[in-house]
Amino acid sequence: MNLGQYIEKFHAGNQAAFARAYGLSKTVVNRACAGKNVSVKKLREIISHTKGAVTVGEVFGDTPRETRSFRTEKDSFGAIEVPADRYWGAQTQRSLQNFPIGGEVIPAPVIRALGIIKKAAALSNKSLGNLDPEIADVIARAADEVITGKLDDHFPLVVWQTGSGTQSNMNANEVISNRANEMLGSALGSQAPVHPNDHCNRSQSSNDTFPTAMNIAAAEEITKSLIPALSRLHKELSIKSQAFGTIIKIGRTHLQDATPLTLGQEFSGYAAQVKKGIGRIKAALPNLYELAQGGTAVGTGLNTKPGFAKKVAKEIAKITGLPFVTAENKFEAMAAHDAIVEASGALNTIAVSLMKITNDIRLLGSGPRSGLGELKLPENEPGSSIMPGKVNPTQCEALSMVCAQVMGNNVTISVAGSQGHLELNVYKPVMIYNLLQSIALIADGVDSFNKRCVTGIEANIEKINELLNRSLMLVTALAPEIGYDKAAEVAKNAHKKGLTLLESALELGYVTEEKFRQVVRPENMIGPHD
Predict the structure, then answer these.
(1) Catalytic pick from 76, 254, 370, 529?
(2) How far apart are CA 124 and CA 147, in angstroms?
């Protein structure tokens, strides 16, 4: 069943209704049904809403065969037809047909990383005299188009494939081979003069290539996206900490009144959490910088020239600007992905920190009249469809949902990481998919939270002072003067009779008014004091 037939059967042929039902673009749906050019990502989004009735293998077969153009490609299983305008080949097409599962495609950073590897391998083999210079150079040129994202639409495969990522590695080999041959004037599918296995995959196996792509993708996204976003949040929280440095407020432990601190001190804790989170994810990078490339099938380096592993890592470092090196032990790098698990653990800790921060801020901003109300949060949009004038802490809620997702992703990555049976972990695609999603979600979520919430937070001085002066826990300052038991009696008596602490202390006769005012001074309670 193709997409048009599905809509005819289940949506009375109404493409617009199908589009509305799933929040899709009517134009994109129309183009997909007509077999016109639509990005792989959009097509997969559409296909995912057919609940398996339209298979992934039919993504590019939604129009009658007689109206489409195909070419024949071959692999060890024989001939297979491939859409004529696609650069992928037989193995990618078989994967489309064999794994009609979900709509989660291999992430773009992994595709970019595969392009980086293919370029680095070609240049390394060239320098070692293991690849014809002309072939190596055209592979590098074609790989550059993969690296820049120009050929992203030619990488349609889903995450749910072989656990080694073999189909995605071959997707890269086939795309680069066909594009290179096209650059040299040969027909797509000719596999000559550039062959996907013999040339694009030379000195490589999927077993060392895909884990290398995982590490490259993770390291690039962490350094170029995540750390800058967290650094911006840390800077803004530090600014708020300084700005709120003289505002004394009541502290709370167990969600009950406690001794005072400054609002600046409270925010300094948030800033420190983010700073430590940055340190944790930075500490995970050195292990990600160790690459499996050169281990080939099981870690021995079979079918590589001496020196290839170090040379290809050096080329990858040159292309990315990151300090990648060859892994000291290729067996560990291929059979286990502890570096990915470690990075996910750091992300999980960051998510825990961010969840605490967002919850604190929305609690402190609760109200406006019946909550704590110590913070004034930016008002970005209406908050209720039934309660007029209601405004909600939506940025806090969005980031807290991000944190929940990241925590769930960490469980998946941990389970997948534990499945490195014997010489190969075969949960690679799901590990990197979830890790990259966590990185992207935290980076995006933190930036949105920072720009649309943190920067606009203001202190509600009037409310802060009101709650501070009403707190019974200021009695803690009396304990050194009259003892713990009497101080507790003062607080309980005040609470029971609705008195102020001063009134209760005077009623019980434990202290003079002069002594009380001398001792119970919030400004002297926010740090060590003589």
Answers:
(1) 254
(2) 17
Looking at the DSSP bridge assignments, the partners of residue 174 are none
Between 1.10.275.10, 3.90.1010.10, 3.30.200.210, 3.40.190.10, what CATH number should domain 108-202 receive? 1.10.275.10
Identify whether 254 is a catalytic site residue: yes
Distance of CA 186 to the CA centre of its chain: 40
H/E stretch holding 74? strand 70-75
Q: Any idea what the Cα angle at residue 189 is, between residues 87 and 84, rounded to 5°? A: 55
- Model pLDDT, residue 25: 74
Least confident of 48-57, 200-209, 244-253: 48-57
d(CA 431, CA 202): 26
Domain ranges of the chain: 3-68, 108-202, 207-245+260-461, 471-524
Residue 24 CA to its chain's centroid (Å):
24
Helix (H) or strand (E) holding 466: helix 461-470
DSSP 462: H
Mean predicted lDDT score pLDDT of the chain: 92
384 counts as catalytic: yes
| 138 within 8 A of 184, measured Cβ to Cβ | yes
The CATH architecture assigned to 207-245+260-461 reads: Up-down Bundle (1.20)
3-state secondary structure of 73: strand
Q: Catalytic one among 205, 268, 366, 384?
A: 384
Domain 471-524, CATH: 1.10.40.30
Contact 216, 116 (CB under 8 A): yes
